[in-house]
Design a protein that fits this description.
By secondary structure, this protein is an alpha/beta fold. It contains 15 helices and 22 strands. The protein has 2 domains: 3-230 and 429-451, 3-Layer(aba) Sandwich (Aldehyde Dehydrogenase, Chain A, domain 1), CATH 3.40.605.10; 234-418, Aldehyde Dehydrogenase, Chain A, domain 2 (3-Layer(aba) Sandwich). Helix 2 runs antiparallel to helix 4 (78-102), helix 3 (63-74) packs antiparallel against helix 6 and helix 9 (244-256) packs across helix 10 (276-288).
């Protein structure tokens, strides 16, 4: 029987060996999920609300337990892992309180005596999720899916199988009926067959562009709905009239939280040339203050990357850019899975750290002379997840928001996900939306009801 052994990226120690599910076990799990769907969809919104609130309570009560596994499996600093679990409780509470409104029948006046749109569940939804936010990525899908009456089945990244099983435990402890939420312990080689199974009605994926393309191709062949949240190469656009101290703090957080392993991290710093050197010097002071080390230490802000191969890939991207003329201002060194917080200046659009997504603590700095040039630089990317603009002239920035080819524009704030706002991108950052009323309506049948007497 095939197995997967998870390793602590900080210590290198073995955590646990998990047995992968066989084809027979996969078929059984999917069948049980499908059988559960037909009773789950009949439950009242009040019952679903009660259970999701119970899940939120479980997350809060045992946040330390769940956070500890996140930190062990992928190296996230423990304080950030705890915050991630607590944010999952928030999204559960949000949908418990708002789902009824989001899913209410939409009355439409026509020639009929009565006509409306009904939002009804689809069935078993496959979620293919990454390791960088092993709890949050799952809960921001699962909470609305369950409230809509769907039954989620999770295929998590192989290095965070412990967290995947813990998520299943959350729903079990909250009192959900068996098989309302299930975990498949499988590798990427099993995904195509799972998508092709008639039981699976739709697929959501958060991950890389190649993974998204492969999933969309398979799902499309079988006419199944997909939502894709893929990579990002977000820019931080710093105008000369910004509040420098507040902007510096936001930029550091945007790039270096979660050790830079985030699709919505601010990876490209675009700063007005007239303030660039002053801004960079002050930025370097703040980056030097970031505490690296043991991710189980509450004071640690920079942990390791989730795997050593990821750190090696980042090292290659940095070295390629240095060879092309970028200037190393701080960092640049790798030790195992650890990569130093790094800032590169003199970065041009032809360099690797500008063109590609850097999934780690590396910030690429490029200067501009006008707002038109800043927008052109920002849009010079195959990705389109989000952009942050920092300026005291908020009205002018708001008028320019439409010119950014992004799923989100945040003014004087880092790009972040919020249960109340739709989340997703354009271009190679994917399609569809998660969170808010838009997210809960992705995996429903928008059924037209037309009545005449």
């Amino acid at each position: 029987m095939a197995t997967v052994t998870s390793l602590n990226p900080y210590s290198g120690e073995k955590i646990e060996t998990h047995k992968k599910h066989t084809k027979t076990e996969i078929a059984s799990i999917l069948k049980k999920a499908n059988d559960r769907f037909y009773s789950w969809r009949e439950t009242s919104i009040e019952e679903r609300k009660k259970l999701l609130h119970a899940a939120a309570s479980e997350l809060k009560k045992n946040a330390d337990e769940y956070a500890e596994m996140i930190t062990r499996e992928m190296g996230k600093p423990i304080s950030q892992a705890t915050a991630e679990v607590e944010k999952c409780a928030w999204v559960c509470e949000y949908y418990a309180e708002t789902a009824e409104k989001h899913l209410a029948n939409e009355i439409i006046k026509t020639d009929a005596e009565k006509s409306y749109v009904s939002y009804e569940p689809l069935g078993v939804i496959l979620a293919i999720m990454p390791w960088n936010y092993p709890f949050w990525q799952v809960f921001r899908f699962a909470a609305p899916a369950l409230m809509a009456g769907n039954v989620p089945v999770l295929k998590h990244a192989s290095n965070v199988f412990g967290s995947a099983l813990n998520i299943e435990k959350v729903f079990q402890r909250a009192g959900y009926p068996n098989h309302c939420f299930s975990t498949l312990l499988v590798g990427s080689d099993a995904i195509e067959d799972i998508i092709e199974n008639p039981i699976v009605k739709a697929v959501t994926l958060t991950g890389s562009g190649p993974a998204g393309a492969a999933v969309a191709a398979t799902a499309g062949k079988h006419i199944k709905k997909t939502v894709l949240e893929l990579g990002g190469n977000n820019s931080l656009v710093v105008l000369k009239d910004c509040d420098m101290e507040a902007t510096l703090n936001s930029c550091v957080q945007a790039r270096f939280q979660n050790t830079g392993q985030s699709c919505i991290a601010g990876k490209r710093l675009l700063v007005d040339a007239s303030i660039a050197e002053e801004f960079i010097e002050k930025l370097l002071v703040k980056v030097r203050e970031l505490k690296s080390g043991d991710p189980t230490n509450q004071e640690t802000y920079i942990g390791t990357l989730a795997r050593e191969d990821l750190a090696k890939d980042l090292e290659t991207q940095v070295n390629d850019s240095l060879d092309a003329g970028a200037q190393l201002r701080i960092g640049g060194k790798r030790q195992g899975a650890y990569f130093e917080p790094t800032v590169l200046s003199n970065v041009t659009p032809k360099m690797t750290v500008f063109k590609e997504e850097t999934f780690g603590p590396v910030l690429a700095v490029t200067t501009f002379d006008s707002i038109d040039e800043a927008i052109e630089l920002s849009n010079n990317s195959k990705f389109g997840l989000g952009v942050s603009v920092f300026t005291k002239n908020v009205e002018a920035a708001e008028k320019l928001a439409y010119r950014f080819d992004e799923g989100a524009v945040f003014i004087n704030e880092l790009v972040k996900s919020d249960p109340r706002l739709p989340f997703g991108g354009v271009k190679e950052s994917g399609y569809g939306r998660e969170l808010s009323e838009h997210g809960i309506r992705e995996f429903v049948n928008r059924k037209t009801i037309y009545i005449n007497k």
